[in-house]
Specification:
single chain, alpha/beta, 3-stranded antiparallel beta sheet
Amino acid sequence: MALKKSDLYSSIWSAADVLRGGMDASQYKDYVLTLLFMKYVTDRAGRPDSLIELPPQQPPEPKKDEDGNIIPGPPPPEIGYGGSFHDMVYWKGKPGIGQALNQIVARFALHNGLSGSITTANFNDPEKLGKDKEMIDRLSKLIGIFQDEELNFSGNRAGDDDLLGDAYEYLMRNFATQSGKSKGQFYTPAEVSRVMAAIVDVERASSANFSAYDPTCGSGSLLLKVADRAPVDITIYGQERDIATTGLAVMNMWLHDRPTATIKQGNTLSTPSFTEMRGGKEMLKRFDVIVANPPFSVKEWSNGFSPENDDYERFAHYGIPPQKNGDFAFLLHILASLKVGGTAAVVLPHGVLFRGNAEADIRRRLLQAGVIRGIIGLPANLFYGTGIPACLIVLQKRSSAEAGSSPDASADRGTNPGEDAGAVFLLDASRGFRKDGPKNRLRERDIHRIVEVFRAGREEPGYSRRVPLTEIADNDYNLNLPRYIDGREAADRQDLEGHLRGGIPVADIDALADYWAVFPEIRRRLFTDLRPGYLRLTEERPAVEEQPEFRAFTARLDAAFDDWFTGVEETLRGIDDTTHPRSLIQELGTRVRAHYLAQPLVEAYAVYQHLMDYWETTMQDDVYTIVAGGWTAELQPEMTGKGDKRKVRKGYFSCDLLPPEIVRDHFLSDDVARLRDLENKIAENEGEITAMLEAEGHEEGLLAEALGDNGKVNKSAAKARIKELKGTQDPEEREELNYLREYLYFENQVLGAKRSHKAHEKALRERTYDQYESLTPELVQELVVQHKWRAALRQRIGGETTAVGQALGRRLRELATRYDRPLPELEAEAARLGERVNAHLAKMGLTW
């Protein structure tokens, strides 16, 4: 069975459950990720394209007596003393498992030149893993999770997509979320990484000589996003201060099939690892693109070296950052490490845009030198370990030919292609995000809009603009985004005359011009003139969605969806084992966005988000399943229970690619209709029972004698009461008798319908199961493409049409309510109410 991404993620994440309790997420991530790494390298070893070598077995030396003679004993095992996951499996349930796992990882690391990089997790730590049997059980269970046959990574790629690499990213994000403040900084959110990778022009790479560098690389995820976007394999360099996190980065590179990446451990500012001889002097190595998410506002940034006498001249041109804040220290290191013609993107806190003193001087010099290409303001609470808002600063050095003759210009002067070199492109993306637990996350629509607008240099009111250096200078080189971009929503105006005399101001209706361009007839039908400049609604509660013109609009957008889907249907039907899922969704997203840009009132980015949400929750797994196993509907038995008590639910089954309800509705529609009729009958009769109980199910009611302690009718008591009342001539008792009989009638109707429903449902389930036997790949393809994907996307995207009508109707009702009663009318009503109150008071003898 094909391994779905979601199943892979959940299976591996369950490994963390084994370790929770003994340590926090910032610690147990090292154990889980190390085992994941060992499983991966073991499965991939021996492939023709693999750079992995597993070390040979190194069994312990045989025991000897005092004279040096070998003591007879059983021969050493053939496994357990190498450097593979198989060796780890050998030690399951055995004493000494912790020390053995440490040695297995160490052997692999030594054999592949990774010593010190991947050996930070101590599997023999009793404080974290327990002592004796507790340690044995915990580690054995952990190994068992990765031993699952479904977690076979020997062929884990689907085209250009790395299932395991994505699983690693999933784990990193979850570990970062749970690690708490200051412990999740090893991971840059994938969404931010994608934005950064898209704006550093890595697409211009044409050979492996093109270099990418991250001076504070953490787990390496940001570097990998850059490398993934490059059209060719590029050379990767990274440095990370924390030893354990360096190991994460090394493993991350291997898991993403980039084992040649150079990751060094050390303090980037005091002891940079990447240098070269230039002009007879050791200087910082320069790179084509640089990306970085350095720790925010480090206070001890200058420990270990003297910024005033920096060997690499990083602070000579722009100044020395303040002693207690290292934000600009990292930025200047990045600038010094950037090649002529190179581009860098760095995440920094918003404070770098406006803080004063030494930082103000550095900012001014950078702007005057023209190396700041743009700034992107991000939402608050995106990053792990901090909730403060951050920004992306994009740096660029232009070529020597453009640089001019100043001593530093050829190295440091930047430009925006085709624009004034002094202008800075500012973009405020702080309001586009979604909540995800305790953090905020950029949505797909937010990512795409940021990248598209920034790369095109497109100015959008309240979102982005190109600001000339003269304007920035007039603001004393303060780059705080609200000074240049006003992203606030316009205040809703209050019309004084409208409040005094009534009527909706024409200006407020004219402000809805985008709607009236599409619905001119709706405007004519809903409004009449009240007096010059003011209108009156012809309907008390305007139902926009019921207007013929809106129905025509709905039909138009439905047709637009059909046109788009028909255009991509051939691509979807062509999914096979050569399909690259990531490339597929990129194509679908590009086409749906372009298609809906031509549609009025509906936001193309919102439609794009619906597609991406469905891809994330459902379609992605479907595509991976098809790539791995073709257009086949593989049934899985439905399980009940939890943990060790899980068992097969007899007669029940599921199919992820082609759910049973789709097969049932398509082939067995008459049976489905019968089932729905029974469900309706049950609901109707239960409604009657509820109504009767509400009306007479109290102490004085007709059902009182049959009520149980729970307030419901006891069937035995009701029958006994009917028997007791049989033949009575008393009118009240006759009424009670008939009521009880009617109540039991409805109960019997429900009981009978439920029995029929259960039997019919079982038969329908069996017939649906049999139907799968006759499904050809062509039929599976038709049902998945048309009845699953098309139907789901049509419903999701169709919601945007409904939202248009709701938004217009809501605004019209708001305006109508605001101006429906003029001030004189309100004053007259207040006077009338006052008179009534005074009259009541007078009756009570209270007058004044």
